[in-house]
Write a structure and sequence with these properties.
Length: 466
């Protein structure tokens, strides 16, 4: 069934609404129809159909009147189910919080609404975003539209699938170790993890030690850049977002200093991933960038990262282990139990390792403007992969998921540097390949410009059939 409105990207839909060619009501109905068409993919925990219809109807008098409209006027968007939404349940992917209804929106949600956007629903996430596979006891498994035998990634898996398939053109994801970039890479879309504090998260449990970020996901770089301009800004309740944010302009490709990181100390990398990343490096050379291969060992930081992650999960979930363990995914319970074994000394040691990693990356960015790497060391993994087990890449035992599959992503969560994923072709399994761009704090403009240049050179991914 044709649904041309749902096929429009964020910018095209906003422009069509501004020209009075598509109404907010039509935009919402098209998105809801596409959700129904794609129901088998299981990308939503909650669809706010009636609220979205009511909001769209309330916007009609302004749409029918002459004059300019707000930039996102009438455009549907989604929010991951970890992100607070006023009056709309936010389950965090868990039966433990199935009835949780926040009283206020996260700033990112409020800013998209202020720009005229219409919240369409809450997208799927594993419980508390604790793993890179989008599955929970609350909603089941979210499928990868490219190949259902392989994961759609996580923890913003529903957000990535919804944006890819046009269930809403723009999605908000969260990223605590790669949870925007990994599912964006698995779905073949663009995802941005911003600089710490650039998009505020005042509802975070640990405001001062946070390593979780909220950011936009969409099919193209231009859409993500557009959303970025609406989302960034200070917030007096976020300690990392107090001072006016710097707004440096994008550095030109000619003479751009690019650090090319093909390996980061992990045991192996898939040949297709290596080839697609090298191709991106060569395209940047052709565009005038100065590309130099570097070596960094991120793999050794997996252990301190896990101490932080597991301790954080334990702090929130341990009270439920005795009486409600059967309501949890087993992998969440195991994560919490591992967290209970860590000492305060181990947690302080992890904080010191985090500082060491920050200094390491600051040293890189004293010489380079951008760092190019894979997003993951292998294409999307089989859906039945044990999140606590070992993985094999190219015949090599690579250890556990975080160090073996995505050692390129979690370091930027610990250091606060911005990073984004950019599609780069398809693997032998028909699943997407992607590259990661990372830069100094507040270098989003340069990352987005570089990604846009790569987008014009790298293979285009046609959306898989519904």
């Amino acid at each position: 069934m044709s649904n041309a409105i749902a096929d429009l990207d964020t910018l095209a839909l906003a422009a069509a609404i501004a020209r009075r060619e598509v109404s907010p009501v039509q935009a919402v109905e098209a998105a809801l129809a596409r959700i129904e068409e794609c129901q088998r993919l299981n990308a939503f925990v909650t669809v706010t159909a009636e609220q979205a219809r009511a909001t769209a109807q309330a916007l009609m008098p302004r749409w029918q009147a002459p004059g300019a409209l707000p930039p996102l006027f009438g455009v549907p968007f989604t929010a991951k189910d970890l992100t607070p939404t006023a009056g709309v349940r936010t389950t965090m992917g868990s039966k433990l919080f199935a009835d949780n209804v926040p009283k206020e929106d996260a700033p990112a949600v409020a800013r998209l609404k202020s720009a005229g956007g219409i919240l369409l629903g809450k997208t799927t996430t594993p419980e508390l975003g604790h793993k890179a596979f989008t599955q929970s006891k609350l909603f089941g498994r979210t499928l990868n539209p490219w190949n259902a035998d392989y994961t759609c990634g996580g923890s913003s898996g529903g957000a990535g699938v919804a944006a890819l398939m046009g269930m809403a053109p723009l999605a908000l994801g969260t990223d605590g170790g790669g949870s925007i970039r990994i599912p964006a890479a698995c779905s073949g879309i663009v995802g941005l993890k911003p600089t710490l504090g650039a998009i505020p998260q005042p509802q975070s449990p640990d405001l001062f030690g946070t390593n979780s970020f909220i950011g936009p996901m969409a099919r193209t770089v231009a859409e993500v850049e557009f959303a970025w301009t609406l989302l960034r800004g200070t917030d007096r309740m976020d300690p990392w977002g107090q001072s006016p944010l710097p707004n440096p302009s994008a550095k030109p490709l000619a003479g751009l200093r690019v650090a090319y990181l093909p390996r980061c100390g992990s045991p192996a990398i898939d040949p297709e991933v290596a080839a697609s990343t090298e191709s991106a490096a060569n395209h940047l050379r052709d565009l005038g960038a100065v590309v130099e291969e570097i070596e960094l060992d991120f793999y050794r930081f997996e252990a301190p990262y896990l101490v932080m992650l597991q301790s954080s999960v334990a702090a929130r979930i341990a009270p439920f282990l005795k009486d409600r363990r059967n309501d949890m995914e087993e992998s969440l319970a195991i994560t919490a139990e591992l967290g209970l074994k860590h000492s305060a000394v181990a947690l302080q040691g992890s904080a010191a390792a985090r500082s060491e990693l920050f200094r390491l990356l600051q040293g890189v960015f004293s010489r380079f403007d951008v760092m190019l790497s894979p997003v993951m060391a292998a294409p999307p993994l089989p859906v039945e992969t044990d999140p606590h087990g070992h993985i094999t890449i190219n015949g090599v035992d690579c250890g556990t998921i975080r160090g073996g599959w995505y050692p390129f992503t979690f370091p930027m969560n610990l250091t606060g540097h911005p990073a984004m994923s950019q599609p780069a072709g398809l693997s032998r399994h028909g699943t997407p390949l992607s590259v990661q761009l990372c830069g100094p704090w507040h270098s989003e403009a340069t990352l987005l410009a570089t990604a846009a240049a790569l987008e014009a050179k790298l293979p285009k991914l046609a959306r898989p059939p519904i």
